[in-house]
Amino acid sequence: MQLITNYLDEVKQLLDKLDPGQVESLVAMLEERWRSGKRVMLVGNGGSASSASHIVNDLQKCIYLDTGKALRAMCLADCAPLVLAWANDEGYENVFAPQVECWGEAGDLLIAISGSGNSPNVLKAVAAARQRGVATFGLSGFAGGQLAKDADTCIVVPSDSMQQIEDVHLIILHMVFLGLRDRAMAQAAPDPA
Predict the structure, then answer these.
(1) Considering only CA atoms, which of 50, 8, 4 is closest in space to residue 173?
(2) CA distance linking residue 140 with residue 123, whole number of Å
(3) How far is the C-alpha of 5 from the C-alpha of 135, rounded, in Å?
(4) CA 69 to CA 146: how far, in whole Å?
(5) Is the pLDDT of residue 191 over 70?
(6) Taking 70 as the threshold, does the pLDDT of residue 136 lie above it?
(7) Which pLDDT score is estimated for 41?
(8) Chain-centre distance of CA 60, in angstroms?
(9) 33-186: CATH architecture
């Protein structure tokens, strides 16, 4: 029971440390891509890949259902055959960057998620995005790692518990989705007569 109580207390403390302005900046970046029809790509490994894949459901489907216009969101970890082919032929550190080079265009957004902030394949994706004029937003943990330095903007969850970092990352992604949905629905609503 004490482990559960401690865990909840620690996650609450991490949430209290979040800067709402940083979360709001990601909402604004997503709204800009939704308005302009630009693409949003997400990358991550393990639990971070799961969070990236999960939030694409909300960002693409739910925004479409609520507004009639989808956010062009995709998780670059979702196609297992493609990820494995890149890993087999070019090394695991190169599974995301070639996909960014394939899909990324100037004005798009890459959301890079890495609990450690030091995942080589995520960092290479950020570098590929930069070369193509794609904006980058990182979600990291611990002390931020290299991702906090390489991404245009990065929210760092200051914890050494990967589980708590991943919990807070998913909460951030859900808040961002809800913020985007509110803005998008307000724009999609018909003007009162």
Answers:
(1) 50
(2) 12
(3) 39
(4) 35
(5) no
(6) yes
(7) 98
(8) 13
(9) 3-Layer(aba) Sandwich (3.40)
